[in-house]
Design brief:
By secondary structure, the chain is α/β, with parallel strands linked by helices. It has one domain: 5'-Nucleotidase, C-terminal domain (5'-nucleotidase,  domain 2, Alpha-Beta Complex). The strands form three sheets. The chain has a five-stranded mixed β-sheet. Strand 6 and strand 7 form a beta hairpin. The longest helix has 26 residues. It is globular.
Length: 245
């Protein structure tokens, strides 16, 4: 009797499995036709274009406002460049309006998305150079953490910095100076950077080890626009801050 029941169960499982498999095969989707649509300038939707036209015109008008002039083209490069120095100087200047005791600024070169070209600077240029919604913070660190940060910067081959100098040799930092003074490992230093980096992102893990945080309630690109309002003619910073051997 047990043998008959066992055989019945096995047969039932086989039948059920076969029926499920056949059902899956019969319900599988089939492709009856394929046509490729080229996504280029020829793909237009006139009604949509008409709808957004006034908004586009308003946006273009705002983005084309001239807010300053650059005396020369400033590139983005490692270990540093004229534009990476300028951006860090801007952050430091804006932070010192709130707290004159801020010692240094650091931001990631990867967040600076294109050069600043010689000639007129528009609001649109600023948005293209700094397209991310990064807000600024003043963070406090012990000197020993700043040394770790300098080594993280050295490992990356450089970053956008102001108020700090360092040598890079074999991926390690040496001769680290803040305001031309050696770092005291026990002293508290104030650093302006972005909320994104305050979490230790982009391989700058020591920035997550802050002991105090003060938000500036200011976007990074708005800091640049404020700077341009104060300095209509923008000069490229020439001082070397990172010496790579």
């Amino acid at each position: 009797m047990k043998k008959i029941i066992t055989t019945f169960i096995i047969v039932a499982i086989v039948v059920a499995t076969t029926m499920y498999h056949n059902k899956q095969q019969s319900s599988a989707p089939t492709i009856s036709d394929i046509s490729l649509i080229s996504v280029d300038g020829s793909l237009r939707h006139d009604a949509m274009a008409t709808l957004i036209a006034p908004y586009k015109a308003q946006k273009d008008s705002a983005m084309n406002i001239i807010v300053g002039q650059a005396t020369e083209t400033m590139e983005v490069a490692k270990p540093e460049s004229s534009l990476t120095r300028l951006i860090a100087d801007v952050l430091l200047a804006e932070a010192r309006k709130v707290d004159p005791e801020v010692h240094m600024a650091v931001t990631n070169i990867g967040g600076i998305r294109r050069p600043l070209f010689q000639g007129n600077i528009t609001i649109g240029d600023v948005y293209e150079i700094l397209p991310f919604d990064n807000s600024l913070l003043i963070l406090e660190y012990k000197g020993e953490t700043i040394i770790e940060l300098a080594n993280a910067i050295a490992t990356k081959g450089g970053e956008s910095i102001s108020g700090i100098k360092l040598d890079i040799h074999d991926g390690k930092a040496s001769n680290i100076l803040i305001n031309n003074q050696p770092i005291n490992p026990e002293r508290i230093y104030k650093v302006v950077t972005t909320d994104y980096l305050s979490w230790g992102n982009d391989q700058l893990a020591p920035l997550a080890n802050h002991i105090q945080s003060t938000p500036l309630n200011l976007m990074m690109r708005d800091a640049m626009l404020n700077y341009l309002n104060d300095h209509n003619i923008v000069l490229a910073p020439k001082d070397n801050r990172i010496f790579s051997k």
